[in-house]
Structures are given as C-alpha cells and as structure tokens.
Amino acid sequence: MKDKVLETLYEKKGEYISLDSIASKLEIPVAEVQEHVTSLKNEGYTIETSSTGELKLKEDLTLLLPHKLKDSLKTNYIGKEIHYFREVDSTNEVAKKLARNGAPEGTVVIAESQRRGKGRRGKKWISPLGGAWLSIILRPNTLPINAPQLTFIAGVAAAQTIKNEYGLDAGIKWPNDVLIDDKKVCGVLTEISTEIDTIDYIVTGIGIDANIDVNLLPSELQDTTTSLKSELNQDISRMILVQKFLGNFEAMYDEFNKGNFHEILKKWRQLSKTIGRQVEIRKGTEFVRGEAIGVNSKGALILELDDGTLRKIISGECRHI
C-alpha cells in the first residue's frame, strides 16, 4: 500500500494533493495514508506539505528512486520490489534481513551511500554519494557448492553493461573485481544462507563507482581505483546504468537456472584480465605465485607454478603482478 501512495503522489506530476483524496482513491483511512507518507520520508523521499495540509512529491532526478527505476526496467522479476535508502550501513545487511523475513526472489536493496559497505574478507568498501550500491536477493534451486557462480554472473553482467553502454574496456579480475585499465571500478560480494544441502537465500551485492570523484577517495585507493565519471570525463545516468545492469543480470541468472552456467563462464573467460597474467594469490598467511592459465567449471582459478605443476585455487585474494 505504501507503493500505491507513492504512485498516487507521482501521478500528480509535482502538484499538490490532499490526504483525503489519496485515502479516497486507495480506499484506506487518512491515518494510514499519513503513516505511509512518514515512512516514505524516512526512506529519503522529499514530500512537501502546503499550508492547507496537501502533499506534493518533490523529485530529485539524480536519485535512484524506485518508481523511476521501475519506469523503464525491462525485467520480469529482478527489481520488481525495491527497497530504497538515502544511507544505510550496508545494503547486503538490509537484504539479508529482508530475505530472512521472506522477501521474494529478485528483491533489490539500493542506497545512495553506505556507512559500512562490505568487501570480500571483511574489507570495508568505500561507498560515497554518486555510486551505485545495491544488493539482490536470490533463491536459486541449486546446491550450495554452486553459490560462488553467482559472483561470476554479477561480474559478467557489470562488465558487459559498462562495455556496451559506455564503450569502455571493462574486464574482470578473478574472482569478482571489474577493472578498467587495471583499475577497479566495480566489486561483487556474494553471501549465502544454507540449510544442510539446500540454499535458503543468496544475497549478491554490487558496488559500481559511477559518478565518483576518485580524488576524494582515501589516498591509498586513488592509484588503484577509477570511476565511470573519471573514464568518460562526465557524469553518467546512474538510472540507466542500474536498469541495464539488472536486465543483464536477470538474463544471465535465468541461463544459470536452466543449467547453462558454461555459457556464462565462456563470457567470463572472454572478459578475464587475469588469465594469462602472472599473479599472486593470498590465502590467509600463505602466498602462491604463478601464471593464471584458466578457470574451471566451478570458478576455481588454475595456476601453473614455476616448477610446472598446476594448482587449483578455490578462493583467495588475487593480485596481478
């Protein structure tokens, strides 16, 4: 019902409408309308109140507001339910709570900024205003061992979106970073909740440095990070970026559910900036060096060590040498 209140305000195209009119149209009490309006304000919507108590939705076209995202979103289920926030600690944490409470597959959590964005291995992901920070709730009918494949799907969807929409040479560093000229522009974090041999839910978090001024990031990140704004020398439409990404993601996720992960892996290999490179993998306190010669069907990295032996790396932090 809150979404219907929002839609009613949006339909007025910036004109004032009374609480009574909204209540009458939706056939709910005025008090309930007021509760939903308060909730919308808490989520970041700007709703003005006139001297006579009428309401008007004031749009900020730079924000990733759900009703605008849905307008041209060409998906069947990804993003049909969107939870929007001006700021959260972590979209993944919000999504996990929603998933535990039964949120449907395809639910998206999106925020303008994150206070405690999460990267792999507990690292903090810097998430200022201007980026695209979102998490997707998934409930695939597959074994938990296949869950890491969702990271590959998100990486391919992000890299292809950037290549197709902006003509940039985006590629993927194993297992989950999207790079432009060896600088990170996007990261993926997949978290899973399982029960014995079944998946309860998966949350895939994606962070894209869209309209971010890299010079404002911490100094230790400036040499290894880029943004779409920096590469193009202009701001991009984050709305179109997110819509295109979600469309690409859903198409690949559907292929995954049909048992066609091999096709996604083929695209990942084509986009890989790791295969053929000398790399160093950190696994806890252990460091392994070698040439990355491929990725197997489960997403593990295959290294050829200096002595010619092969080693399969299931997880770890990869550094291109």
TrEMBL record:
GO BP, one annotated term: regulation of DNA-templated transcription
Domain BPL/LPL catalytic: 67-257
Keyword terms, alphabetized: ATP-binding, Ligase, Nucleotide-binding
SUPFAM superfamilies recorded: C-terminal domain of transcriptional repressors, Class II aaRS and biotin synthetases
One term of GO molecular function: biotin--[biotin carboxyl-carrier protein] ligase activity
GO CC terms of this entry: cytoplasm
EC number: 6.3.4.15
Entries under PANTHER family matching the protein: BIOTIN PROTEIN LIGASE (PTHR12835), BIOTIN--PROTEIN LIGASE (PTHR12835:SF5)
Protein name as annotated: Biotin--[acetyl-CoA-carboxylase] ligase
